UniProtKB/TrEMBL annotation:
It catalyses: (S)-malate + NAD(+) = oxaloacetate + NADH + H(+). Pfam families: Ldh_1_C, Ldh_1_N. GO terms for molecular function: L-lactate dehydrogenase (NAD+) activity; L-malate dehydrogenase (NAD+) activity. PANTHER family: L-2-HYDROXYCARBOXYLATE DEHYDROGENASE (NAD(P)(+)), L-LACTATE DEHYDROGENASE. Substrate binds at R82, R88, N120, R151. The keyword Aminoacyl-tRNA synthetase does not apply. Catalyzes the reversible oxidation of malate to oxaloacetate. NAD(+) binds at G7, A8, G9, A10, V11, G12, D32, N95, V118, S119, N120. InterPro entries: L-lactate/malate_DH, Lactate/malate_DH_C, Lactate/malate_DH_N, Lactate_DH/Glyco_Ohase_4_C, Malate_DH_type3, NAD(P)-bd_dom_sf. This is Malate dehydrogenase. Keywords: NAD, Oxidoreductase, Tricarboxylic acid cycle. Residues 147-300 form the Lactate/malate dehydrogenase C-terminal domain. Transmembrane segments: none annotated.
Length: 308
């Protein structure tokens, strides 16, 4: 198994670190445009292998796409992250050029790969990758829901006083502060709906905190987060590599599902060796469906910028 991570910055390196620790690949290529950067990060990570006991061989390269040849999974994290006060949407122009170029280069050497797009604004970057690559829609996935759902579980766990890992909770919609939809009515703790365990005030607090979860961290750290984004991406990679068929909220191309066409949005997806193997049809309330349509509208107007 060979995996490539493009972008050796905060998220890419953390993702690579998780992939290596979980031994998801024999060979892991870390590629960055910045001279020597990926090489340095890779050597640093390889120098943890004797301590952590993993056998993945990590190789860092500067823009050398030939080294990525025959990768079965490629993660794209290259692009600018947001700074305090910025929205993900403000990154669109710069990141669209980066993501398009990276996708074209990757496909020259790995024409049948599965791509996971992390760069923001993710919904639009994922759509762009779909259109640029021409790959079947099951082979392109966007990471955003894995992260937002994990944040949702974290905030729920604070109110419930339980472990985040004991919760089932998903976020769908767009991967933006105003477009994501934490499905509070579908969230459960040990099969008990959390709506039975939390007051309406607590539920609203959790939903709000989840939606601005990324911005909260950007305000505290000074740039966007990386531990949970890196781990969320590696979880998706793991489900593909080990064919785990995990249900992970992910950005996928919709062709009528949830009432939307020709757009990438986050929905519950079964992820296995073929990528996005099945989109699950959650029964949404009228209010949730209306919120989903509103998110689609916002993402669609961002996508329009790509052709402007
Ligand atoms: P970073 O600035 O630490 O790393 C980005 C890396 O991309 C840099 O090392 C840069 O040299 C590299 N790069 C830029 N252009 C490139 C090119 N053409 N080819 C190869 N490498 C290139 O940023 P960070 O924090 O790692 O974030 C990366 C992206 O992921 C950002 O767009 C950020 O907004 C996004 N993000 C998405 C999340 C999600 O849930 N989808 C969560 C967190 C971040």
């Amino acid at each position: 198994m060979k995996i490539t991570v493009v972008g050796a910055g905060a998220v890419g390196a953390t993702c690579a670190d998780n992939i290596a620790r979980k031994e998801l690949a024999e060979e892991l290529i870390l590629l960055d445009i910045k001279e020597g950067f990926a090489e340095g990060k890779s050597i640093d990570m390889m120098q943890t292998s004797a301590l952590l006991g993993f056998d993945t061989k990590i190789k860092g390269v500067t823009n050398d796409y030939a080294s990525t040849a025959d990768s079965e999974v490629v993660v794209i994290t290259s692009g600018l992250p947001r700074k305090p006060g910025m929205t993900r949407e403000e990154l669109i122009g710069t990141n669209a050029n980066i993501v398009k170029g990276v996708t074209e280069n990757i496909l020259k050497y790995s024409p049948n790969t599965i791509i996971i797009v992390v760069s923001n604004p993710m919904d639009t970057m994922n759509y762009l990758t779909l259109k640029t690559s021409g790959l079947p829609k099951n082979r392109i996935l966007g990471m955003g829901g894995a992260l937002d759902s994990s944040r949702f579980k974290y905030y729920l766990s604070l109110e419930l006083g339980c472990s985040p890992a004991d919760l089932n909770a998903v976020v769908i919609g767009g991967h933006g502060d105003t477009t994501m939809i934490p499905l509070i009515n579908h969230a459960t703790w040990n099969s008990i709906p959390v709506t039975q365990l939390l007051t309406k005030e607590q539920q609203d607090k959790v939903v709000k905190a989840t939606m601005v979860g990324g911005a909260t961290l950007t305000g505290l750290i000074g740039t966007s987060a990386w531990y949970a984004p890196g781990a969320g991406t590696a979880t998706m990679v793991e489900s593909i590599v080990r064919d785990q068929k995990k249900l992970i909220s992910s950005g996928v191309y919709l062709d009528g599902e949830y009432g939307q066409k020709d757009i990438s949005l986050v929905v519950p997806v079964i992820i296995g060796k073929n990528g996005a193997e099945k989109i699950l049809d959650f029964k949404l309330s009228d209010e949730e469906q209306a919120a989903f349509s509103k998110s689609a509208e916002a993402v669609r107007s961002m996508n329009a910028v790509l052709t402007d």
